[in-house]
Design brief:
By secondary structure, the protein is mostly helical. It is built from nine helices and three strands.
Length: 227
């Protein structure tokens, strides 16, 4: 949707383009936005990623605590190849913004001084968020239209709320947190984990039924991947 103006190389330089989110809402990006206004969050929204700047900073802290991998490993955990596949004209600017966040975290964060419980909780939160991201990417091949979305809209919205809550905790862990808050999060994580597994299973079941009905006449046996 929208109108895009390109230069002689085919690179967008003006106009706007709109995208439809999973919940059905539509958001529009002005492609004439100045480079100064294009921070990491701008590109994350434009490209349809899940991990915004402060969440990315949480991934950076986790990677630094692990002692290996560096920025390349963090980026691979958070962003797939659509940057080069679909948004190649923004690839360099995107890389610059990712580098800025990494450099900031490296300059201000000393893993050796962090409370061990926070390090462990961050990793546990990221396990849940990364599992959900992997599941969503696998799900893309089955949600091909609004009908599929309507079938599992409630479950997907509930999952989105849980992930939003976990992302909020991840961002909070970029700053000082009271021991009591960390203890509550530690106690709640198993419940979040179980609830997410249940919701993802319900979506898998609903979409599997939908796919079987759609492909019955062709003899295909399409299965939704279980995580």
């Amino acid at each position: 949707m929208g109108h895009i103006t390109t230069d002689e190389r085919g690179i967008p330089v003006g106009g706007s383009t709109s995208y439809r989110a999973l919940d059905g809402s539509i958001f529009t990006h002005d492609l004439a936005t100045s480079r100064e206004a294009m921070d990491l969050d701008y590109f994350v929204d434009l490209m349809g990623f899940f991990v915004h700047a402060e969440e990315f900073a949480g991934y950076c802290r986790d990677q630094l605590c692990s002692g290996s991998g560096g920025l390349k490993a963090v980026r691979a955990r958070c962003y797939d190849d659509r940057v080069h596949r679909k948004y190649w004209y923004h690839a360099d600017a995107f890389a610059e913004e990712v580098q800025k966040v990494w450099d900031r975290v490296v300059s201000e964060f000393d893993p050796s001084k962090e409370e061990p419980i926070k390090t462990k909780l961050r990793k546990r939160v990221l396990v849940l968020l990364e599992r959900h991201t992997k599941w969503m990417r696998q799900l893309d091949q089955y949600i091909t239209g609004s009908h599929e979305m309507r079938i599992c809209q409630k479950e997907c919205m509930d999952l989105s709320e849980v992930c939003s809550l976990l992302s909020g905790r991840l961002v909070e862990m970029n700053s000082d947190m009271e021991p009591a808050v960390l203890a509550r999060l530690n106690a709640m994580l198993p419940q979040y984990d179980q609830y997410m597994v249940i919701l993802m299973g319900e979506v898998d079941t609903l979409l599997s039924k939908q796919q079987r009905a759609k492909n019955r006449r062709t003899g295909k046996d399409v299965k939704v991947s279980k995580l």
